[in-house]
Amino acid sequence: MTDSISDAAREIGDRVETFVRKEIAPYEQDPRAGSHGPTEELVREMRDKAINADVMTPHIRKDGGHYSQVETAYILKKSGLSPLGPVACNTMAPDEGNMFLLGKAGSEEQKARFLAPLVSGEARSAFFMTEPSADGGAGSDPSMMQTEAKLDGNHWVINGKKTYITGADGAKVGIVMANSSDGACMFLVDLPDPAIKITRVLETIDSSMPGGHAEITIDNLRVPADQMLGQPGQGFRFAQVRLAPARLSHCMRWYGVAVRAQEIATEYACRREAFGKLLIDHEGVGFMLAENQIDLKQSELMIDWCAATLDRGEDGNVESSMTKVSVSEALFRVADRCVQVMGGMGVSGDTIVEQLFREIRAFRIYDGPTEVHKWSLAKKIKKKTLAAM
Amino acid sequence: MTDSISDAAREIGDRVETFVRKEIAPYEQDPRAGSHGPTEELVREMRDKAINADVMTPHIRKDGGHYSQVETAYILKKSGLSPLGPVACNTMAPDEGNMFLLGKAGSEEQKARFLAPLVSGEARSAFFMTEPSADGGAGSDPSMMQTEAKLDGNHWVINGKKTYITGADGAKVGIVMANSSDGACMFLVDLPDPAIKITRVLETIDSSMPGGHAEITIDNLRVPADQMLGQPGQGFRFAQVRLAPARLSHCMRWYGVAVRAQEIATEYACRREAFGKLLIDHEGVGFMLAENQIDLKQSELMIDWCAATLDRGEDGNVESSMTKVSVSEALFRVADRCVQVMGGMGVSGDTIVEQLFREIRAFRIYDGPTEVHKWSLAKKIKKKTLAAM
Amino acid sequence: MTDSISDAAREIGDRVETFVRKEIAPYEQDPRAGSHGPTEELVREMRDKAINADVMTPHIRKDGGHYSQVETAYILKKSGLSPLGPVACNTMAPDEGNMFLLGKAGSEEQKARFLAPLVSGEARSAFFMTEPSADGGAGSDPSMMQTEAKLDGNHWVINGKKTYITGADGAKVGIVMANSSDGACMFLVDLPDPAIKITRVLETIDSSMPGGHAEITIDNLRVPADQMLGQPGQGFRFAQVRLAPARLSHCMRWYGVAVRAQEIATEYACRREAFGKLLIDHEGVGFMLAENQIDLKQSELMIDWCAATLDRGEDGNVESSMTKVSVSEALFRVADRCVQVMGGMGVSGDTIVEQLFREIRAFRIYDGPTEVHKWSLAKKIKKKTLAAM
Amino acid sequence: MTDSISDAAREIGDRVETFVRKEIAPYEQDPRAGSHGPTEELVREMRDKAINADVMTPHIRKDGGHYSQVETAYILKKSGLSPLGPVACNTMAPDEGNMFLLGKAGSEEQKARFLAPLVSGEARSAFFMTEPSADGGAGSDPSMMQTEAKLDGNHWVINGKKTYITGADGAKVGIVMANSSDGACMFLVDLPDPAIKITRVLETIDSSMPGGHAEITIDNLRVPADQMLGQPGQGFRFAQVRLAPARLSHCMRWYGVAVRAQEIATEYACRREAFGKLLIDHEGVGFMLAENQIDLKQSELMIDWCAATLDRGEDGNVESSMTKVSVSEALFRVADRCVQVMGGMGVSGDTIVEQLFREIRAFRIYDGPTEVHKWSLAKKIKKKTLAAM
């Protein structure tokens, strides 16, 4: 497997690791890394360091090409070794997925205007898709989307409500999804825009995303027709293009931070004594660390397997569902055990283990709850089995 | 079982339920119910309402006597229907346990001075026992206690460090545990005291305890000899007296809030649709709610069983360990499933489910991590089995 | 709780325990206790001993009345301390449920003819309800029942296929369920009958039921009209009458044998050494035994809670579903851990732990798989919640 | 990963699959495939077919060389598609491991005499290592070995007891482990030998191994000195050589049969209806099948990862422990879910799912219980962490 990682990718991945461990991890206790994610000031400060260390947007080559998914996994896992790493290196969600999509589907003008400032790390972006449940909008089921786009001369006029829009607060680039009479469409917009109002930023259990997750009202947003991504009705197809890789890159980043939690918990267990011996010498603790080692390895193998599938040009829908479920559930078990191993220290903010536990709890829901993926996998199993019967 | 609950206890329990649901639950979204627990101002405001509704310290009768543990379970479960309920009604930790201990072990003077203002809800208290691991102090293993008390004339002089001291910030009464040449001792102190310095209040995953959890330095604290609880060397015996009931009352309170979470998640699942039907009509969701119903029932039965054991005058060490492990683990599963049922809403602060999930995560560690209880249970199983072989 | 057990019930329960441990357990290694359950010869031999020890049908009083469900739980748990205990004492399935149903719904003549020889332990019985899936018959879903009964003069003529008919091979009394034009009916029949052909006895994972589980063809079985239980169309009502208590008595018996497995595994762990200490001194082993102790206690409390519900005259449908799910799953965990604690010995027939593990695996399916009960619980949660919204 | 499988290996693996599905699976219902494994007659019959189909000992090339571990995984997984497949194709334990060891450590004479008839499928073999716990012998802890070998002229005289000796009954070749004054040794012996007495064949939960698992007394067994494998004291080293690959090949075979169980359960769920729809359309069932698909994929990835490690010449101790734990636990979950999906059918012998469930239960203990591997992993984590601190 590792053979398919080029020297260049390996070299930049290792540089990312050194950078995140040495220059970014110390910021974890910085008060600016708050509960709605790091402040814009802190983001800027960390990104300047990343540019300096030549690790900005490390998974995209200088010529604009992307490393393979297997190589991207190598790099993004390293960037995740701190919850602040992906923000610093510009490998985080939703930007990573947005850059991927723009690279695949954007026109040259669109790339120059919307993609370039993202790749350089100058701007952040948001992806306006999910809608509030109180109004019966689209959560896990995209067919329920209620936001509407109507053509008015050379402009589209968009109205609707969105929620859980990660990073909207502070973003400079937006991708907005809405239904038109031709089907779902995606629009590129400059942010902020007075027609896109942040009604509030949600309090959430996770806290690593700059800008947090926002609730949004879109009120007669006018978008010039040439800011549509592709053609009318291609919205769901583009959502699919973005879907599997974006889902997988979540796994990569969170894998990194789970590795870090395991390091912290293991060192703690090798230092702290109770009832006459080191914690790790208690099987009750040692077994948990061994289980973590297994869960981490399985997660890594699933990530690499799914990445290889995407690299072969397959859509990877089944594979990324399987990977998302297994990795998010496994990393949650890892985080939960790390908390437990560390006792009172584990539920305090004195190490990042507590934050990681919260982040990964959200991961079991973000990008499709475990149950939605199992439901979708079951449907595919049925289809395949009936076809063969 | 329910037969053993007197009408008086049932009546006050039901009054507590009405009070918590109607008057306290609305405060949950109050900004003063912050991440280090409710502010002193909010505590006062809620407690005035509790006095008004005649539900202050509801598990202690007007004559100072305590309701039985089975009755206390009935009352405290109701008080827990909001994370703010126990603070409002004065059934929360560590006060509930401290009042119990003072009632059992305090002299009349000590009760008048230290217990009375606690029972009236005028003052809060703290229990200074656990110590920082960084210095090798006592966490789950009390034999590692390093805080020392030396007799100097008619005073004891105490030095040491404590951590995870719940509610210390803002408390008026303290119970301090320290080693003397005669063994462990407990001391009653007025707070604040310049010799007891709060070095910081920890950031923790839970956020319902007023005053949060503090790190403390005790620097030449001088305590008059008559403020010792009982005799020198009785410290561990008193810790035992407090132990099982205090552990059990945690289960009661958290049970209440888990019931509330289940109510919220169930209503959500009966209102929200996805993929063409109500969430609850998806077996993936309905099964989780059914599992919760079972876990809640089992938790209730364990609590009542342990309470009945204590009411028979037994020490209940085994029973309270079994109950603490099973209830904390079961309620965590309940909370985790409620989060999952509610999807994005479940990891946001829009309902208390998200907070409950965090609170109960801590519960699996507070008052002895699951693993310490299993370890202790295994030792007792061994002893009993060898005796019978 | 224990107060509600009369001295008489307690006395006979304790006598059952002594009998099962001293006189029945030694038969466990008898080759006649084979893979399709004990042979008729062995059944007779054990039952003669039971009559001798005055423990035959111990949950039914000499006057024909039944002990309360809470008392029955006390007695049946004791009878289960060996997988052969229920057969020996006549507390086993399906006879226990059949006797219960006949006592509730039979006419005096029916009782004299069909119930009396069951209570005396002279005869065994079978309950013909479930049907083969290959033909789309009724498994967990009784509405799919295909067996038909047609009135022909003064007789009913019954045709159909049944499967998983426990104890049919060797039974003297049968209760046959079939659809008539008036709805489902139950018929009492003498066995064997040439019109009821045992096509084969299934090989199954469990092996404690005499007669095993049979596949049956009913071919023009003629039953006199007065052998119908109750009236035409009451079949499902009677199935309900039998349902909850029969389901609960499974829990009682299997609880007993899980207690026995825990005893065996614990003694093994207190005798056997590995890696320099007793197995039980390894936390990996001691924790499993502690978890078993908790699971057993929870199971006991659920059984007693459900029994008390039935004793209050409620139908107990929800309670028995909750109890069946939680007890069967908990006892399976107990059995699985006992196997694991005992290593190679645990998967061999040298102790009954291996058999118990297999028996309890089947218990998670018999009397409704876990999933069917969760499905039914979810529907009731929905109904109750919508009613309150 | 798949690139590293040669065309030759792929071709023979695919031939094995066709052979096992078409020619061997039908034997599963043959009465000669009994509870102590297939009879010698059935083994011979199936092996003649295997020779005919050119799939005898398919993981060893005609020139005596072994396929790589990654290739062996490809082949052995296919051979496991029936529990009788490995016996038929000669890829089963303990022969596969014994052949591997003899190939690595045997002299040319030893290979000609003891290995050749194994590779041709003419003879079966046994590995005499584990000892009865009743006498304090070596189970999971090889340091407790009590069997002794003493030099007497040009012969070694061996005395001791062994248990769980798989396939001893009917084997022609034995490898006996014993302690000498120079340390542990391995001896090659012809079987049967009057000094090696089978005291009984154990009843065990699994039933696929020909000859079952035997208890053995070794009473003054005289072995010529040139039948020692390697040199005196090399016994544990050879045990290590055999260990990781033999452990891994268990995972390969059992993976195959779990795939088969999943096929059977999935087809059942796509054919059988309950409560108005196909079983698979119930999320309670569909989710289980989706979880199986994930568990199977993770198992496959762990097997391939460990195989690649061994192919790089590493000892693979950590990797094979991690793989054995995760694969045996995952496949057990798969088997358990398949049983549950199939309801009453799942606990009957009508499909191989019931047998598979029992086989895999044993797998969690054979070759080191899960707990022993976790214990060993924890020790290695500690060592590595302390070295880096």
Describe this structure in words.
4 copies of one chain form a homotetramer. Chain A is of the alpha+beta class and 389 residues long. The first copy, chain A, folds into 3 domains: 2-92, no CATH class; 125-232, Butyryl-CoA Dehydrogenase, subunit A, domain 2; 236-388, Butyryl-CoA Dehydrogenase, subunit A, domain 3, CATH 1.20.140. Chain A is built from 11 helices and 12 strands. Chain A has helices at 7-24, 40-52, 69-79, 85-89, 95-105, 108-119, 235-269, 283-311, 317-342, 353-363, 370-388, and strands at 33-34, 37-38, 125-128, 148-152, 155-166, 173-180, 183-190, 196-201, 213-224, 228-229, 273-274, 277-278. In chain A, the strands form 4 sheets. Chain A has a 4-stranded mixed sheet with strand order 3-6-7-10, covered by helices on one side. A 4-stranded antiparallel sheet of chain A has the order 4-5-9-8, with no helix packed on it. The longest helix of chain A is centred in the middle third of the chain and has 35 residues, at 235-269. The relative contact order of chain A is 0.11. The model of chain A has no long low-confidence stretch (mean pLDDT 95). Chains in contact: A-B, A-C, A-D, B-C, B-D, C-D. Chains C and D meet through strand 11, helix 10 and helix 11 of C and strand 11, helix 10 and helix 11 of D. Chains A, B, C, D: Belongs to the acyl-CoA dehydrogenase family.
Spell out the key features of this protein:
homotetramer; 389 residues; alpha+beta; Butyryl-CoA Dehydrogenase, subunit A, domain 2; Butyryl-CoA Dehydrogenase, subunit A, domain 3; 3 domains; 4-stranded mixed β-sheet; 11 helices; 49% helix; 17% strand; globular; Acyl-CoA dehydrogenase (chains A, B, C, D); FAD (chains A, B, C, D); acyl-CoA dehydrogenase activity (chains A, B, C, D)
